[in-house]
């Protein structure tokens, strides 16, 4: 039985945009991984992947891979645009404070590790997308090899991303990604010089209006 | 700045719009950058001679297109080779020239070697269905009507395919089309086409039902790829038999005809390579039906140890009824040059060629199955035709 004296802690939420963009990204990543692993399993050096034979798809592999790649590319572009417009870049910013967090409290440490994993994801996503489209246009073994290794990293990092979130806040933390909330866009950071300039401009404008009013009022009185 | 504020107040909407534009741009880019092979119209009196020599004047009017094909075996260790294609037509026939780099000329086909009176495969890898050494160089040309946009519709990787069908012996998968559509496949082979002017003309369609031997795993099941006609260009020249002590032995199906004086060695040297002294390394590694007779233990006993015979027999009978693909290749200086001709409108299980027909190429460097490939097809544009 729940303790009535214990305050009810609400489950955390995440902004709607992040929730919306995470799921097509996750779906395309799963589908790209399955089709990609099947394509890679045909290589002699990756023949061990044939152990996954029963779960890997077989039909229209390249077409499905390319369609999923298009979805992923679109979502990644959307995410980049979104975090800038929604001013959420601080979430993934790597600065001194973030790096210092690596030696701080457990929560700060895991949060910093998560940001580093996010950057690993960004780099492997960018590499996979660029090399993947290069392979599509002009098939080259060197580019293909780079694509394969970047994609393998891309398969592993989301698993770590989820595990770190579990470490940070357990299932409640994970549940954020299915509990959207309205986005509260933070105000732009204040610039003191800009504020002073704005105040001066306002003061100048009001003085001007005052003077204009004074020069106009005697005339009105005269006509009156 | 009210507009900017509005723009920022709907970040999800703006991001999704940018994303949709990006995807549309990618799709548009893919559509407009499909490589095109222009096929000029030539006078029927000025057609190139199909002899593997691309110096004919007619070829000077054809604009070459070069494709990078990759993910194959060897090619100097890179696994990739560039193939340069040119094409011409005279409203009746289409002519192609293909030039690709291949540092080694390979014209063996897992030959059979006689040692201590017993036939063996010459040095093959453990996996008898994925050879990457004692095999001939080949080039495969695949044609499709314009509905196919990417390679892959006919490639089904994996062991677990569908119920009632044997597993692929190589463990790699099958060629077939899921929707039953038909693709035309021509295969030029270093061994078979050393003695035959006709290319192997296959097609890829819906998967065939396996016969009894294939269902038992005795015979190789090939999925949906099959010759256009039952008359294949080359057939295996061996079978496994039980030896006197119960062991499995390799036995040729056909042996070279003896020379008039009864000596096999002389006859063999004309058609098959002999090991050791007196061997003729420049002889083609193929035997034709005309040069062979069905296996007999009496003839076999006369064949000396060290003799090598090809593991395929080439059919040189005319294929004109169902197969009009003719081709001749020459290898020089680390490069193959292949010339091909075929009627634009062809026979059963063929794809007739017109503007919009799509083409893929795959090169084999002494590999049984591990060929190079490319994803996007070449789109043929025939001048004043279709």
Summarize the structure.
The complex is a heterodimer of chains A (224) and B (386). Chain A is mainly alpha-helical and 224 residues long. Chain A contains six helices and two strands.
Give the secondary structure arrangement, pairings included.
The complex is a heterodimer of chains A (224) and B (386).
Chain A lengths: L13 E2 H25 L20 H25 L10 H6 L4 H32 L3 H35 L4 E2 L10 H32 L1
Parallel strand pairs in A: 1-2
Helix pairs in contact in A: 1-2, 1-5, 2-4, 4-5
Chain B lengths: L1 H8 L1 H22 L3 E4 L25 E5 L11 E9 L3 E9 L10 E4 L2 E4 L16 E7 L10 E3 L15 E3 L7 E7 L10 E5 L7 H5 L8 E3 L6 E3 L1 E5 L5 E5 L1 E3 L7 H8 L15 E2 L3 E3 L2 H6 L5 E2 L2 E3 L11 E7 L2 E9 L14 E7 L13 E5 L4
Task: Explain what the structure shows.
The complex is a heterodimer of chains A (224) and B (386). By secondary structure, chain A is mainly α. Chain A has helices at residues 16-40, 61-85, 96-101, 106-137, 141-175, 192-223; strands at residues 14-15, 180-181. Chain A has a two-stranded parallel ribbon. In chain A, α1 runs antiparallel to α2 and α2 crosses α4. The model of chain A is unreliable at 219-224 (pLDDT under 50). Chain B is of the alpha+beta class and 386 residues long. In chain B, 13% of the residues lie in helices and 30% in strands. Chain B has helices at residues 2-9, 11-32, 212-216, 264-271, 297-302, and strands spanning 36-39, 65-69, 81-89, 93-101, 112-115, 118-121, 138-144, 155-157, 173-175, 183-189, 200-204, 225-227, 234-236, 238-242, 248-252, 254-256, 287-288, 292-294, 308-309, 312-314, 326-332, 335-343, 358-364, 378-382. In chain B, the strands form seven sheets. A seven-stranded mixed beta sheet of chain B has the order 1-24-23-7-10-11-12, with no helix packed on it. Chain B has a five-stranded antiparallel beta sheet with strand order 2-3-4-22-21, with no helix packed on it. In chain B, β3 (81-89) and β4 (93-101) form a beta hairpin. The longest helix of chain B is centred in the first third of the chain and has 22 residues, at 11-32. The radius of gyration of chain B is 25 Å and the shape is globular. Chain A binds chain B through residues 16-17, 20-21, 38-39, 41-44, 47, 50, 53-54, 56, 58-63, 66, 70-71, 73-75, 77-79, 81-82, 85-86, 133, 135-141, 144, 183, 185, and chain B through 7-9, 11-12, 14-16, 18-20, 22-23, 26-27, 30, 33, 68-71, 78-80, 149-153, 155-161, 171-173, 178, 370, 373-376.
